[in-house]
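In the previous chapter we treated chains in isolation. Here, by contrast, the input contains two separate entities that must be folded as one system, with a combined length of 902 residues.
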Amino acid sequence: MTAESIHETGALLDVRGLTKVFGDLKACDAVDLVIGKGEIHALLGENGAGKSTLVKMLFGSLEPNAGTIVWKDRPVRISSPAEARQLGIGMVFQHFSLFEALTAAENIALSLDDNTPIRTIAAKAKALSHSYGLPLDPYSMVGDLSVGERQRIEIIRCLLQRPELIILDEPTSVLTPQEADRLFETLERLRDEGKSILYISHRLEEVKRLCDRATVLRHGKVVGHCDPRQETASSLARMMVGSEVKAVDRHADEGSAGGERLLEITSLSRKPATPFSTPLRDISLAVSAGEIFGIAGVAGNGQGEFFEAISGEIRQPASGMVRICGRDAGHLGISARRALGAAFVPEERLGHGAAPAMRLSDNLLLARHATDSKRYLGALGTIRREAIRESARHVNEMMDVRKSGEDPAASALSGGNLQKFIIGRELDREPKVLVVNQPTWGVDAGAAARIRQALIELARSGSVVLVISQDLDELFEISDRVAVMHNGELSAPLTIAEATFEKIGLLMGGAEPGPAAHPHAAETETEGAA
Amino acid sequence: MRLELVKRPQQSKLYSALSPFIAFGLTLVAGAFLFAMLGKNPALGLYTYFVEPLTELWSLHELAVKAAPLILIAVGLSVCFVSNNWNIGAEGQFTIGAITGAALPLYFPDAQTIALLPAMLVCGALGGAVYAAIPALLKARFNTNEILTSLMLVYVAQLFLDWLVRGPWRDPAAMSFPQAPAFSSWATLPELFPMSGRANWGIVFALVAALVVWFMLSRTLKGFEIRVIGQSPRAGRFGGFSTARTIVFAFLVSGALAGLAGIAEVSGAIGRLQPQISPGYGFAAIIVAFLGRLNPLGIVAAGFVLALSYLGGEAAQIAVGVTDKTVRAFQGILLFFVLACDTLIHYQIRIVRRAPLSEPASLSTETAHGHG
């Protein structure tokens, strides 16, 4: 096997038969991957396909059970991230590992293995960031930076180590379209300089646009290599999922307007609860029966605070601020709001929407003990396990939740399957109002399509769906109207017919659509000089 | 070669059940070393400690007397610990329960009726609950650290008791001994089988409390609420449960049971208020709660194990000639091993010999050189 791989000359990285086993699960099963010099190589796959495991082995944070890694025609063992960096492999993680109370330069210094003074690092970082079109003020506090700017720190930090291979894990999931465009330009420049990039994503359009080659993983195995430019989004999705991904079926024919206003929010404001949270400023909106209302926005612009306020986890000072099915709900807690016919799906699955260590049936009880108490509770508040398990079985069947065992702990499910369960748990109640925050964040294409279809069907049955999402494709696919949340304020809603990526993207960046538009980055650049 | 902890995909049921026994076994081994280092015969020491008390009927009664407060307190603590509230002040709640319960016969010496004892028990439980409400409200309202507040209140309670029995409540007939008057027969917790030994109704209260709390924790929505808030407070709030309410509930239950244990101890085993009413039951009960895996039924068994360590300690002072401090040492060692063995529930221990992967390690240093 080794002999064969060495013949593949010109390859920067040549991985053969890499295997990682966790218990009974083969997370990576004899994976082959070849990355040439100066190419952007996409690693495609659903959640749980083994992408993260593969990358962690390449970056030295996991030890493979079998297989070889050949780096520049030489077999290597990578047993720690430091060794990976020494070889010339750098990585930008999906979840940033930055300290909010330190400056950008200090964060970079922490990850370098030597004792270079901060001043030198800052100067280098600044020069590098400008030459790659990713302006960054090295002395700014991370806590004050947007998610896009934080990602720049990660990228600069990675570039400072002069890697020959850069691994990026879902880099655009937190960016506005404009920010993503800048990132693509940077990546293309890096490629032109002869660096190689391993680009992990499930956004097919992006991969088609950016990548030269793609390796597709499914269930831990490589199921295909292709040139993404020769493929269509749906053919890529088919490779990833292994079957046809059903396009979301949406009838625009029925009139959504004119229905009963089931969710009304009037002048909702909220002071920030902590120094790091966003205040809500005078938000008003009304959603009518049969309508899907989308709220776009870059993460951290008040979406979480907004969700908590509507769900009743935080109550409002005036009862009329939130009305559900025509009843004042501002003073009610989450159980009472559910009783009025509302259902909620928070962004964070583990630890908010579900208790990680508890079984699915327990997690079903968690959200439904108040609304289905007749069914699930007996005398003295005793829990009727059989009835709950029966409901959980039904939800799992309805949403095609894949799991091991009859009633596993929530944390044992993959992200997509847990999300299907959580959404199914609420849909099973047939709510009149469903509020869902990031319905398909980090969810694979198959599950995402299933979830979107379920939301559309719920609206079609005469309910209201309020979708808060960072994924513009998703919002355009399912919403009837879209508004943008920026810095705790909600823009005026646009009907889907009048909305464009461009308009929404500018609103997401905080600019009013029009000539006043101003790229965010320019400000940082000038501030940096101060 | 190195040892590696590999996280289990799911908690091991086997080790969940086995770990207290492994911990107890390791405690015995450590105890044998302890005796050997003190220059005593380890076999004799361990026998005196852990076997001899079980060989006679009267000492089985003593075992029940010691186990009763431990189980009562630990059952209450399990509600606190499961909900992630660290009540370390059960010793204080025990003391206050003894004081408020004992106040009744002291202030109403003429109330010699059958209702006196039940009223004392209720007052004891209430006193303990109110005392536990202090750290609970501070935590719920101001987010104070309940470990510190509940622990500090222990010393307040103990000094308060000390002052009472040396001052206002001292028995004038006691020749200036610091103690309150002995309880009348109406105020005394009756013994179960007076013919064979001293065991009183305290152990019955303990067993009933264990059953009731077990049922609540494992079978009812209230128990579910307590577990969710303990494991994942944000998910609990999403479920419509209140963190503050759970804090107060857990402390009230735990304080009431500790207070009940306190009044049962003074009106049963001791017979009067005195400066020292507990050999650290409130703290030993923390060990009992963990040894019993925070499951009230497991706590019953664990309570008897700890009671045995008290009894054995007394016997060993006489038979082996070690100080009473070895009891504390044993209890500490036991808690240490219990917590250490819990690792086995979540992790698997694997011995890794430097895995022969594809190439010798020298290569990676070589490449590193090339880049340096």
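The radius of gyration of chain A is 24 Å. The mean pLDDT of chain A is 84. Compare these points with the single-chain example from earlier in the chapter.
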